[in-house]
Structures are given as structure tokens and as C-alpha cells.
Amino acid sequence: MATIKEIAELAGVSRGTVDRVLNNRGAVNPATEEKIREIAKALDYRPNRAGLVLAAQKKNLKLGVILFSQSNPFFEDVLKGVRNKAEELAEYNCCVLIREVHFNVEEQLDAINELVEIEEISGLAIAPYNDPRISDKINRLWEKGIPTVTLNTDIENSSRIAYVGSNYTRSGETAAGLMHLLTYGEVNLGVISGSPKILCHTERIAGFENKIKKEYPNIHITGTVVNNDDDFESYDQTLELLRRYPEINALFFAAGGVYGGCRAVMSLHREKKITILAFDKVPTTKELVQEGIIAATICQQPRTQGSKPLDILFAYLTTGVLPEKENHYVSIDIRIKENL
Amino acid sequence: MATIKEIAELAGVSRGTVDRVLNNRGAVNPATEEKIREIAKALDYRPNRAGLVLAAQKKNLKLGVILFSQSNPFFEDVLKGVRNKAEELAEYNCCVLIREVHFNVEEQLDAINELVEIEEISGLAIAPYNDPRISDKINRLWEKGIPTVTLNTDIENSSRIAYVGSNYTRSGETAAGLMHLLTYGEVNLGVISGSPKILCHTERIAGFENKIKKEYPNIHITGTVVNNDDDFESYDQTLELLRRYPEINALFFAAGGVYGGCRAVMSLHREKKITILAFDKVPTTKELVQEGIIAATICQQPRTQGSKPLDILFAYLTTGVLPEKENHYVSIDIRIKENL
DNA sequence: CTGAAAGCGCTTACAG
DNA sequence: CTGAAAGCGCTTACAG
Q1: Which residues neighbour A279 within 8 Å (Cβ) at sequence distance 6 or greater?
Q2: Which tens digits make up the pLDDT trace of B221-235?
Q3: CATH classification of B168-299, choosing from 3.40.50.1370, 3.90.870.30, 3.40.50.2300, 3.10.129.10?
Q4: Superfamily per CATH, domain A4-46
Q5: Record: contact A170-B1, CB cut-off 8 A
Q6: I need a surface site. Which of A80, A185, A285, B75 has the fewest CB within 10 A?
Q7: What would the pLDDT profile of B67-99 be if each residue is shown by its tens digit?
Q8: Strand C–CB B1 distance below 7 A
């Protein structure tokens, strides 16, 4: 592998000059520039990452992470991914600050400001609240040279350098395919949705509905209820739904409130007759899968959602290279009792 | 973060002495040693990885990979994982040599010798042929300071520093649970096995059988055939099996020969009536899932099997740290049409 | 427009 | 038993 030193020797200049050319910093005599570029090309020069990272130690990198873990058990696993990666990055003298906030714009904005103004972070990983004030903020940070990576949910019109998370449409489609495989004959399905205001919930359901319409016409959506991700609302709503439609033989939980809904099924003693499909592997869902109440749950690699954004930020800040693609979709991970 | 330089200053010695103590190289005055250890502990010293990796550039690392990709399409995806990681490691001036061999002890031994004697590799990743000559070889290399990581299949009595691959028992159990979910009523199952001599095939089937015996007694193994991972043998054997047992309504392919077996099903026009489960995502299997002939296939993260061994070797050779655990089981990955 | 030098945090001969 | 120095491959002021 060619190094800057070698190129400098071949070109008869100093390493500083080679650096200037190859990294476009400061003006260089056009003739020398051309010469250096040619040599670099001929030698297929690629910066050595070990050198880059060592040199970057002087920057004393600090990364910020903002999650809604205060209000959502799903984020517990994301947090594990963050912490793991934080330990790894500590070995490179890069530290990671975590802020857990409630599902709320103001709190999130405050957290961003604190991290940027007081802690002076060099990069941000965030599960963004879907509000223009957040996307504006992200754009402002980018102008200041602070990159952002979104995770779990993306946000429009923002200059985040990448998104790490689910492709919700596809995961809804997978739920449809799986529901088809897990059932037989005519399926009378109850859909328990989170909130019609949360984009990822609606995308999932849209993916599901389009798929059954197109490919699995034996699955009929008998009724839909909304639980606002709350277990008690979920319990009440599901109970009512099941009472109203005794023919329901399958349930699709598109978001949270899985435990409450399943308790409703059990209180009516209908768990043997109803095929239940859910998302994510929060502790209560895990138990219900183990007990055979929930047939399968579709997961979205929460750890990766925590770790990968930090990887992307660290790589960008040490090597200056943006990720190859913007959207980093996690794989759609079907879990049953045996591979839980 | 504390550095060697800081410790040296505090202890009033040179960095060389600190290095000797912390890395146990050469003798040091017991008093100074104690002092240095104390300071290191008080400061919670951890070597900076960027420094370690840069210093290791002098070693000009070369890693070897040996796979049975000559005779098995599954390894194509493993190979992709290897190549990806090789590109990444190239950025650290570490090069990766790949040898593809047939399923055969001698060829594999020759490949090892060539890599070690001629190429002088510093570490080896290998899908080992299960033979004592291979495990002996691995032990010999370890004595010479060359670490080995096994992938896809492990080998007993060897001093490989880690194994990356499936937990076959668990993946067989998952197949059992999935088969249960995909069917209903009485299930008359045909099992199409690869070779009774290959440990991972038998482990998978044992996991499957134990599981149905214990938890899914409605699944009966009607007949079992062996196809030696060959599509034409598979075709013939499956054809005979299906003719002999017209009641078969489910098929479990525990290894290769999936395409041949499915062609037998189709030639008898029984694909609508038989639930088929397979392993891995070779191109033909993928197509059959897309067409709805195969209901689901259980994958074993082939890319990770290719990339992670290289990560482990590189980390060991640059930092001297052995992986935290020996067995790195890949996750059991259920794929259907929609999340293929 | 360019070079010389120091530094990031380690390791590795070498000299004494 | 110990220190001084050079080197891994970059970047970053600084001086001219």
C-alpha cells in the first residue's frame, strides 16, 4: 500500500504538500498538484485508516445519543447496542453521552441544545420526533459541521447523513406473508394499531393491507382499533373488539400495547383459537411467545439501531468519509419460541 | 484516558519500561514494576486501540481463508462476507488470501501448508474438514503463534481461538417449531437429509426430532431419505419417498439438494398440498420461496460467517486480545417470501 | 505556495 | 534492568 510519505518522495515534495493536494486544503502550485495526483492515482493511494484514526485522537471526539427510552421499553435494547458500541469507541478515546427523554418535542430540543452547547459534541445520533423544529435543528447542526444520524424513525427535509432503522412498509408486508403462513382457510383478522399519527405505525399497516389485498384475499380485516401504545387502552379496546366479533381468529398488533391486548384474549379464553402476531421483543412479548400465546414476533435489530449510527458518525469524523448509502435498513427478523 | 506516556511521567521512568511492565516483556525492577502497576490501575489504563493498530502496521499482516466454495453454493455468500471484510482490512494494510478447495482432507491440508509455508500468513480462518489431521495442524500452527478461527463447522480437540457459525441443534429445533406453526392437524413428514456422516446435518436432525417428540407430537416422521447433498439423488429419493407415502403433507430439507427434491414434488403436482421447509438461501431455494413452493427457509448469516472470523483474527493480532467467548453463534434467521 | 517539525499512542530494536 | 530513539501513517499549526 502506498503512503503519503512515499508519494512525497516520488514527487520530490514534502508530506504536507501531498496532504494539501489529496485533501484539498489550501492552494498548491498547479504543476506540483498534477504531478502528485498522477502519482497517487498510479499507486492507487488510499489513506491508511490506522493513521487517520490515530491522528484524530487529538480531536477528543464526543458523540451524543438521544432516545425515547423514558417512555418505550423497545428502546432498552437499542440502549444496549449504544452502550456496547460506546465501550468499543472508548478504546479510541471517543466518548458517548446518552440522553433519555420523553416522547415530546420540547424535551428533545432541550436535550439537543444541552449536548451541543454545553457538552460540545461533534456528532449526534437521534430517534427524532417528527416535527419541523427538529429537522431545522439538524440542518443547523450540519451547517456548523456537526453530523446527525437518525435511528428508528427518519425525518424529512433534514440533512442527516444517514438513517438506521426499519423499512416499515416491508416489515408490514412480511407480517402479511407470515400471517398467511401461520393460518389456513378464511381468516378474520383484528388489527390493533398504535397511533394513526405516528408515521411508522401507519406505514406498517399500509404495507400489511396492500399485501393482503393483492396476494392473500382469504385474510379479511374484520375490525381495527387504536391503543395509543398503552396496555390498558389496549386491553379495553381488544376486549371490545373480540366481543363484538366472535369470528375473529387472528390478531395483528402493529405497535405497542401487545401485553394488554393479549390479556384481553386470555380473559376471554380465546388464546387457543386466535393466531397472534406482534412486533418487537420487549420482555412481556417475549414471555407470551415462550408460552405459545403469541405465534411469532417480528423484530427490527434494536441493537444495530443503537450501534450502527455511532459507527457511521465515528467513521465520518475520523476519516471524513460519508457512508456509502443514506438508508441503512435493518433486517426483518422473525422470531418464534425456538429462536427467540 | 490515560496513556503510556502519562504513566511514564508519573512514575518517573521511560515509556519503554512502562511497556515492559504492562505487556510482560522482559524483566523490570520489582519496585518500579509495582509503582507502574499501581499508577496504571489508579488511572484505569486501557491501551488505545488506534495506537496499537498503527504500531501493528509494521507487521504487514496477511490472513488466510480456506473454504469449500468449490463444491457448495452456500459458501458463495460466506465468500461475500470475506471479500467485504477484506476490503475493510485493506485500509489497515492487512491483506486476505482466499483459497477455495473441494470437500476433501488432502486438498485442505495442502491449502493450509501453502498459506503457511509460502505465503507466511499470520492467521487462518477455515471451514475445517472433520479429520484429526486438520485439528493436529491447527494445534501445530497455534504453537508457532498462528491463531485459527473455525467457521461454519467447528472441530474438536483443536486450539482454534474461536468458532463462528450455527448452533445446529438450536436451528433444528427452530425448524421443528416453525414446521408446527406452518401446518395444522396431523402432519406426515418426509425428512430429506444430506449425509449421516456430516456432523452438522445429524445435529440439526437430532434437534428437530427431539423437539417434535417433546412438544409437537402431531408431527410424525413418515419417512427419511439421504441425498448426499446432490440434486439428482435428491430428486430420485424424494420421488420414491412421495410415491411410497401419498399421505406426506410436509417436507423438511435438512441440508442440500433442495432444488432436486422440490422438482420431484412438482413433477407429482403435489406442491400445493405439501408444506416445505428448507435451510439456507442458495439461488435456487430463493426462487422456490419466491414462487411459494417453499414456505420458509432458515438461514445462518453466511456473510457474518465470512466476516467475523477475520475481525477476530485481526483484533487478536493487533491488540493481542483473545475474543471474550469461543463460540460465536450466528442468529437463526427465518426467511419467507416477503423478507427474503 | 511550501517545508520542517511535532504530535496522536503504541512497539521495537539497540545501546548501555 | 533501563532509556533514548525511531517508526507505524496520518494531521496540524507555524514559519517563511
Answers
A1: A171, A175, A204, A253, A254, A255, A258, A297, A298, A299, A300
A2: 999 999 999 999 999
A3: 3.40.50.2300
A4: lambda repressor-like DNA-binding domains (1.10.260.40)
A5: no
A6: A185
A7: 998 778 899 999 999 999 999 999 999 999 999
A8: yes
